[in-house]
Amino acid sequence: METNQTLRLFVFFFVLHSLASGSSLSTKHIITDRDALLALKALITHDPATLLAQNWSTNTSVCNWIGVTCGVRHHRVTALNISYLGLVGTIPSQIGNFSFLALLSINDNNFYGSLPYELSRLHRLKYINFNYNQLSEEAYQQLQRRHTKRNRHLTKLKTLSIGDNKLEGEIPLELGNLIELERLTLRDNVLLTRQIPSLLFNISSLRQINLTNNSLTGDLPHNMCSHHHHPSVLEILALSNNQLTGTIPYNLWQCRELTIVSLSHNQFRGRIPRDIGNLTMVKTLALGGDIPFEIGNLPNLEQLGLESGNLVGHIPATVFNISTLKILGLHNNTLSGSLPSFIGFGLPNVERLTLDMNNLTGKFPSFITNA
């Protein structure tokens, strides 16, 4: 009996000591996160609403600071979201001390300069959003070098958004090694040039790719929808307003999950592939090239933008039979012929119709008065 009592006391004090040690360790780690946040605060030169200046105070727990989320299990910072605050400043090296960080979002601010080397330590990071800042070319090149130096840089990353910044140069090949990437946004970096790495299209988990409004060149790979017998899950392909050449990939229809296809305002040549009519999930289609008859086979199409596509010839009558269509843009081409008299019946949901800057002839369409 005495032995059992002694054993119980030993277990009790051992557990008590373990809890105290664990609490001490947790406190130590949260202090590391706190110091990293204070380092970030110190580099912010403009805080228009003084939110961080007032709220990020050592008088309260880090986990109660605005934009900060802590995990229940480890009591560490797991998310930092300080978007839309109008902040001006740079990102400190201490950002790499958030060893449990899964989400980092600083979009719609005015952060500038480069990304610190220590960003590569965040191996739990799944979501990055740096859109609408003033990050420089150096920031982008450093992101490339970080990945090259460490195979484990950010391999769990699912969302990478660095749109609307001042990035220039080429898209690093190493982004193709982000095997769990689902969303990639590098839009509106006008000086982003050269070819799109074909490895990007080999990421079987990729659902959205938005590279709109850059200066990208080269051809799109014709096997971009093939993933070694795995069906493509790509839903959004937005590459408009670049300098892409060649032809639109003939097997684009194999990306059967596509709902938005935006390839307009490039330098593609030839016809739009006839098999485009097999993209039965697509709702928004913006292309350049001759209009195939099969485009009328898209049962869910709501927006069709074929403006400024150097289109010639007649408009296929099937276009005017897409009953789901709300927006039809065919302006700034060299289209000829007349409009069918039944157009108003075939497009009962049309809200916007632009046909200007063409060579259309015939009578003014009477359906306009009923639209």
Summarize the structure.
The protein is built from 4 helices and 24 strands.
> In percent, how helical is the residue content?
10-25%
Adjacency order of strands in the biggest sheet = 2-3-5-7-9-11-13-15-17-18-19-21-23
Number of helices: 4
| Coarse morphology | elongated
Order of helices and strands: HEHEEEEEEEHEEEEEEEEEEEEEEHEE
Give a quick account of the main beta sheet: strands, pairing sense, barrel closure.
13 strands, mixed
Q: What is the β-strand count?
A: 24
Poorly predicted spans: 9-25, 147-151
Gyration radius, rounded: 27 Å
Mean pLDDT across all amino acids:
85
Distance between the termini: 93 Å
So what's the oligomer here? Answer: single chain
**Beta-strand residue fraction:** 15-25%
Q: Pairing-aware structural class of the strands and helices? A: alpha/beta
Signal peptide: 1-22
Domain Leucine-rich repeat-containing N-terminal plant-type: 32-70
Pfam family, one: LRRNT_2
Protein name: Leucine-rich repeat-containing N-terminal plant-type domain-containing protein
Describe it.
This protein is of the alpha/beta class. The chain has four helices and 24 strands. The longest helix is centred in the first third of the chain and has 41 residues. The chain is elongated and about 75 Å long. About 6% of the residues have low confidence.
